[in-house]
Amino acid sequence: MKEKEQVVEEVQADEMPEITDEAPEAEAVEAEAQAAEEALAEWEKRYTRLQADFENFKRRTAQEKEQLAGFVKGDVMKDLFSVLDNFERALAVPTTPETKAFLDGFVMIHQNLMAMLSKHGLAVIEAVGQPFDPNFHQAIMRVESDEYPDDTVCEVLQTGYTVDGRTVRPAMVKVVHNG
């Protein structure tokens, strides 16, 4: 009978839950989960920062590319200024019946050239009658005039130009000084 009692005890012992350290395991799992969530949050922050840095990089690169293109365009336009100056000198010649057709052709070519260049950002600096601005004008002479107030441009000696709003050649001007 002892055997029977011993077997019953063994079975009862097997059926009885063993007292274990489940609480510490649950805490460890919970700590791991919390650590994983913190790591995920940190990676999300890094990802967001990297994404913002990349967007800033793209924007900055596009701006630098645009600036560089503007400088290159300005340099190419500068090479054409002597041609434009020669056109202006030719157009300033008095017209005679013999030269009228020739000068009309010059005017047409000059207008076509200016239209093409203005399409690419070139603009003439308007100076006569404007207040002197060292950003756009280079004063060569100061003259007296009853027609214009002080510090006003009264004559352009050489046309100035801007490319996309940036001065590439200031206008050489005479400025009024009634003093």
Give the CATH H-level superfamily. Answer: Head domain of nucleotide exchange factor GrpE
CATH C-level category? Mainly Beta
- The number of distinct β-strands equals 6
Ends: how far apart? Answer: 137 Å
Number of domains: 1
Number of helices: 3
Low-confidence stretches: none
Question: What is the helix fraction of residues, given as a range?
Answer: 55-70%
- Topology order in helix (H) and strand (E) letters: HHHEEEEEE
CATH-level-2 architecture: Roll
Detailed description of the structure:
This protein is α+β, with helices and mostly antiparallel strands. The chain has a single domain, classed as Head domain of nucleotide exchange factor GrpE (Nucleotide Exchange Factor Grpe, Chain A, domain 2, Roll). Strand 4 and strand 5 form a beta hairpin. Belongs to the GrpE family.
Could you provide a short overview of the structure?
With 179 residues, this protein is an alpha+beta fold. The protein has helices spanning 2-15, 22-91, 100-119; strands at 122-124, 137-143, 153-158, 161-163, 166-169, 171-176. The chain has one domain: Nucleotide Exchange Factor Grpe, Chain A, domain 2, CATH 2.30.22.
Features:
3-stranded mixed β-sheet; 3-stranded antiparallel β-sheet; alpha+beta; single chain; about 180 residues; Nucleotide Exchange Factor Grpe, Chain A, domain 2; 6 strands
Q: Topology of this protein?
A:
Blueprint: H1 2-15, H2 22-91, H3 100-119, E1 122-124, E2 137-143, E3 153-158, E4 161-163, E5 166-169, E6 171-176
Parallel strand pairs: 2-6
Antiparallel strand pairs: 1-4, 3-6, 4-5
